UniProtKB/TrEMBL annotation:
This is dCMP deaminase. Keywords: Hydrolase, Nucleotide biosynthesis. InterPro entries: CMP_dCMP_dom, dCMP_deaminase-rel, Deoxycytidylate_deaminase_dom. It comes from the Eukaryota. Pfam families: dCMP_cyt_deam_1. Its EC number is 3.5.4.12. GO terms for biological process: nucleotide biosynthetic process.
Length: 299
């Protein structure tokens, strides 16, 4: 279930991109030109919902509006440097001078209101490759961005919740969000870092350490902020934390590692690495951990 629309400047490689998606992933190519009946074509695409389809070139807001009626449609912006596109143009259509190409390119961009259209793109791809093989290899590496699964997997789902939780952090030094989940994929608790509830919030001056600009690791033991991972455990107690998965936006510090071990949390999923060599050592061999790159998943 996938409909991909492609937009991009002159000679950015839109047709080549479509062809590679066809060869590598069996996408059906639909070319939009001026004669096409947009609504009729869209209905044909919707009816063949099981056929992955790639459409080139998207050039109007109306096309995007119609295609967006299916939530498995997404738009990709394909780009290449002006000079690269100029060279490709000359190869394809014969030599012209660079100034003329820039004029042509500007007209194309501004006539189509490219910047406005590009706001609809979820994925930006660069194609400065000199050979088809080079481009195809670079696409393979970016496939998790290009072909979006219909819905996020559990790890991405809970991690995105952790990022939402993180927004409630009141610590002025660093925001972290965490979510504790049981084996049945049910959320047991959520927490973000900040001062204990009886105190003033960190961002209102509740933690003297966070107000200063010393490095975080040196003064952690004096810091009044409760960490997000710690907060998740405190909400529950060990009878419920045993064999759970903790999703945290930042890899746990040493303090939280100790708490997680004691709480018998069995898996940690994190995004940002942090600066915690020692906590990594503590966790290794004791708790299974996985890193996910949330940036790759765009929904
Ligand atoms: Zn703080
Ligand atoms: Zn911590």
């Amino acid at each position: 279930m996938s409909i991909i629309g492609v937009m991009g400047g002159i000679c950015s490689g839109k047709m080549l991109f479509c062809q590679l998606m066809k060869d590598m992933y069996d996408y059906k190519i639909v070319q939009f030109d001026q004669e096409i009946d947009l609504n009729k074509t869209a209905i044909q695409i919707y009816n063949n919902w099981n056929t992955p389809t790639i459409i080139t070139a998207i050039t109007t807001q109306e096309q995007i509006r119609v295609l967006k009626k299916r939530n498995y449609f997404h738009l990709i912006f394909l780009d290449a440097s002006t000079y690269t596109r100029y060279r490709r143009y000359c190869k394809k259509h014969g030599e012209i001078n660079f100034d003329d190409f820039v004029k042509l390119d500007d007209k194309h961009k501004y006539d189509l209101n490219f910047l406005e259209l590009a706001k609809n793109c979820k994925v930006y791809l660069k194609n400065n490759s000199n050979t088809i093989e080079e481009f195809s290899n670079s696409l393979k590496q970016q496939m998790t961005k290009i072909i979006r699964p219909f819905r996020p997997d559990w790890d991405v789902y809970f991690m995105k919740i952790a990022y939402t939780v993180k927004q409630r952090s009141n610590c002025m030094k660093k925001s972290v969000g965490a979510v504790l989940v049981n084996n049945n994929k049910r959320i047991l608790s959520t927490s973000y870092n900040g001062t204990p509830k009886v105190m003033k919030n960190c961002n209102e001056g509740g933690c003297d350490v966070c107000k200063e600009s010393k490095t975080l690791d040196l003064i952690l033991y004096k810091c009044m902020c409760i960490h997000a991972e710690e907060g998740c455990i405190l909400e529950l107690g060990i009878t419920q934390t045993r064999n759970t998965t903790l999703y945290t936006t930042l890899f746990p510090c040493v303090w939280c590692c100790k708490a997680l071990l004691q709480a018998e949390v069995s898996r940690i999923v994190y995004c940002e690495q942090g600066n915690w060599d020692l906590s990594l050592q503590i966790i290794q061999n004791l708790i299974k951990y996985d890193q996910i790159d949330i940036e790759q998943y765009i929904y």
